[in-house]
Design a protein that fits this description.
GO terms for molecular function: endonuclease activity; nucleic acid binding; zinc ion binding. By secondary structure, the protein is mainly α. It has a domain of 66 residues. It has 9 helices and 4 strands, in the order αβαβααββααααα. The strands form 2 sheets. It has a two-stranded antiparallel sheet with strand order 1-2. Strands 3-4 form a two-stranded antiparallel ribbon. The relative contact order is 0.12.
C-alpha cells in the first residue's frame, strides 16, 4: 500500500453511467500510477475497480468517487466485502508507510510479513495488515495458489535486483561511479511509482549496513 493523492474534481460517476466508465478507469489508473493500491503490482492485465468501503448494495457508496480504488483482480477478490475499516491511502492525514512494516522472506514459498508499527496500533492498521498479508500470501485454492506464485515471482525479481545493488553499494571493491549508479537505481525503487515500493523502503530500513550508506535516499520518504 502506498500514498495516493486523489484529485478533488472527480469524473462523472452516476448510477446510470456506472462506476467503470472509460474515463473513471483511466483516471484511477493515472492517480494510482498503474498499481494495485493493495499489493502494489504494476501494469495490471486484469485491473478492477474496488470499493474501499464495501457498498453492500448501497448506491451512495457504490458510486462515490472517493470510494473507488484501482486494484488487481486477486486483491479485489481477497478483500471482497469481508475486510472493513482499513487504512485509506488517499487520506492525507493517514501515515500509510509509517504505520505498516513489511518484511521479505528468504524463500519464495515463505510468507511476506506485514506488522503494525507500535506507535500506530489501532483497529484500522491491524485490519489493513491482516488484509495485506492475505493479499501477498493467500494460496488456499488452486487459482489463488497460481496468482500467489505469479505475484511472488514479480516481487522476488525486484528483490534480486535490490540485493545486487546492495552488494555494489556496500562492497569495498566498488568504485565511486559504480556505487553512485547503484544508489541511483535504488532511489528509483523507493519511489511510490515503483512496484512494491513499501517493501523496498522497509527492507532498506532494516538493513543496517545498507542504510548507513543510503540514508540520503530514504530520508525524503520518512
Amino acid at each position: 500500500m502506498f500514498k495516493v493523492s486523489r484529485p478533488t474534481t472527480p469524473p462523472s460517476c452516476t448510477k446510470s453511467s456506472g462506476y467503470n466508465t472509460a474515463e473513471i478507469v483511466k483516471t484511477l489508473s493515472q492517480i494510482f500510477q498503474g498499481k494495485c493500491y493493495l499489493c502494489e503490482q504494476i501494469n495490471l492485465s486484469d485491473p478492477e475497480i474496488e470499493h474501499l468501503v464495501p457498498h453492500e448494495g448501497d448506491d451512495e457508496k457504490k458510486f462515490d468517487w472517493n470510494n473507488l480504488y484501482y486494484s488487481c483482480s486477486r486483491c479485489n477478490s481477497i478483500k471482497g466485502s469481508k475486510h472493513k475499516n482499513i487504512l485509506d491511502c488517499c487520506d492525507s492525514n493517514t501515515e500509510i508507510f509509517k504505520s505498516l512494516q513489511f518484511s521479505m522472506p528468504g524463500h519464495p514459498d515463505h510468507n511476506i510479513r506485514v506488522n503494525v508499527v507500535e506507535s500506530y496500533k489501532n483497529e484500522a492498521t491491524h485490519n489493513t495488515a491482516a488484509l495485506l498479508e492475505r493479499c501477498y500470501n493467500e494460496a488456499a485454492t488452486g487459482l489463488r495458489g497460481i496468482t500467489r506464485s505469479n505475484l511472488i515471482d514479480k516481487i522476488f525479481d525486484h528483490f534480486c535486483d535490490l540485493l545486487i545493488l546492495r552488494q555494489i553499494i556496500v562492497n569495498i571493491k566498488s568504485t565511486s561511479s559504480e556505487i553512485q549508479f547503484a544508489k541511483d537505481r535504488l532511489a528509483v525503487m523507493l519511489e511510490s511509482s515503483f512496484p512494491f515500493s513499501a517493501i523496498w523502503k522497509w527492507h532498506l530500513l532494516q538493513d543496517e549496513k545498507l542504510l548507513d550508506k543510503t540514508r540520503d535516499l530514504i530520508q525524503p520518504h520518512l
